[in-house]
Amino acid sequence: MRILVVGQGGREHVLVWKLAQCEGVEKVYCAPGNAGTAVDGENVPISSDDIGRLMSFAKHNDIDLTVVGPEAPLVAGIVDEFKQHDLNIFGPSKAAAQLEGSKAFSKEIMSKAGVPTAGWKDFTRLEEAHVYLDAMETGPVVVKADGLAAGKGVSVCSTIDEAKDAAARMLREQVFGNAGSKIVIEECLEGQEVSILAIVDGDTIIPLETSQDHKRAHDGDEGPNTGGMGAYSPATLVDDKIMDDIIRNVLVPTVHTMRVEGHPFSGVLYAGLMLTPAGPKVLEFNVRFGDPEAQPVLMRLQTDLAQVLSLAATGRLSELEGLSWDERSAVCVVMASDGYPGSYEKGRPITGIEEADALSDTKVFHAGTKIRDVDTVNDGGRVLGVTALGDGIPAAKTAAYQAVDCISWEGGWNRTDISDKA
Ligand code: AMP
Ligand code: GLY
Predict the structure, then answer these.
(1) pLDDT tens digits for 365-410?
(2) Which of 103, 131, 256, 292 has the fewest CB atoms within 10 Å, counting from its CB?
(3) pTM, to two decimals
């Protein structure tokens, strides 16, 4: 089997690494990839948004399965285009990807499906948004750009004035362009956040092991929001009863409603959930593996991933007899560039990756890296996802940070408390 992975982050590196180990997999390409995917697979210099060239590559290189990492090509319709050309691809259609591509669409599906989520209302006119906010007595309240905004479209506002400013930036100043021409204003939920991902083939749902991300930049959940500074699996907060609740009240009704609405969902359904005193509530749906959640979760997966994704892509997930998992825990610590999530310098040589990789049950997944001459250099905000397995979360954490200690570059930094919430 010949596989093409689309994307260039840590999520794509773990996908390439895992798929390359599967039975019957002859070759894994990654477009465009990073310095890590070039070692575990072969990079192809095509951007993840260039659907035409990706399709042509898949055709001319006898690709049996394409796996899409990021949301943008999914929302742009890569799956529909590949399928029209009889190319096998894992991921949701353009219509189903609206679950992530439009917050208002996803809220409407949740309302129809009876899925517990924060109370909400959508607006395209600033005056109406301001009237609605003025009618609220106090914050906190959450303002979201409807469309994709590279993870920056959510403002959690502690006061009504702050929320009015956020609405004005989106609707009047158009800081997110068209993605902010509609906004969703919603109730602010409190509790611990967890990520529940499931593989879906339109009908059958297979939940993956649980994980928890760390979205804030600094220790103790301080600082600005980021793409995610580290994750661990399992998320011990989610016991069997909570998991059962999530499957019954979130995953099943969502997949059912998407089918009834004429947009059957196939791919990874990622529910970002808040564990509130009133039970788990959905903060957002994503339509792809989480990054960095994919790193610790897939490091624990023992079932053949190529087989799972192939069956899902062809609507045959029910043939699978569940998934098997490494009983150990996994912790992934993200190492980032100086200045991230703001602007940062690129091109600084990184040392110690090989030493870290040589530690047992440890893998350094590359996110924003590239090769320059003989050096591996930083080439993005999130640079590496250093991931280790251990007997229990504390042991996995110790192992991951031992590996982090081997690695350095000018300005490289990381949180020191990943997994402490467990
Ligand atoms: P998103 O970009 O949709 O992943 O949201 C980013 C982050 O904003 C989430 O991970 C939460 O921490 C926070 N968030 C989103 N919606 C809410 C909400 N209704 N209440 C509280 N926090 C929220
Ligand atoms: N780690 C959050 C995300 O993938 O959206």
Answers:
(1) 999 999 999 999 999 999 999 999 999 999 999 999 999 999 999 9
(2) 131
(3) 0.96
Neighbours of 154 (CB within 10 A): 18
Q: Do 234 and 349 reside in the same domain of the chain?
A: no
Please report whether residue 112 resides in a domain: no
One domain for residues 160 and 196? no
Residue 40 Cα to ligand 2 middle (Å): 23
**Claim to verify: residue 197 and residue 309 sit in the same structural domain:** yes
Q: Residue 296 falls within a domain, yes or no?
A: yes
C-beta 291 within 6 A of ligand 2: yes
Query: How many whole angstroms from 348 Cα to the centroid of ligand 2?
Result: 26
The count of domains in the chain is: 4
Whose C-alpha lies nearest to ligand 2, atom 3? 290
- Tell me whether residue 119 is in a domain: no
Q: Each residue of 26-38: pLDDT tens digit? A: 999 999 999 999 9
C-alpha distances out from residue 312 to 3, 198, 200, 368, Å: 15, 11, 6, 29
Q: Which long-range contacts (CB under 8 A, 24 or more apart) does 275-279 make?
A: 275/191, 275/192, 275/193, 275/194, 275/237, 275/238, 275/242, 276/189, 276/190, 276/191, 277/191, 278/116, 279/116, 279/245, 279/249
Residue ranges making up the domain that contains 306: 192-319
Protein residue whose Cα sits closest to atom 11 of ligand 1: 283
State which ligand 1 atom lies nearest to the alpha carbon of 213: 10
111 in a structural domain: no
Q: Which atom of ligand 1 is nearest to the CA of 186?
A: 19
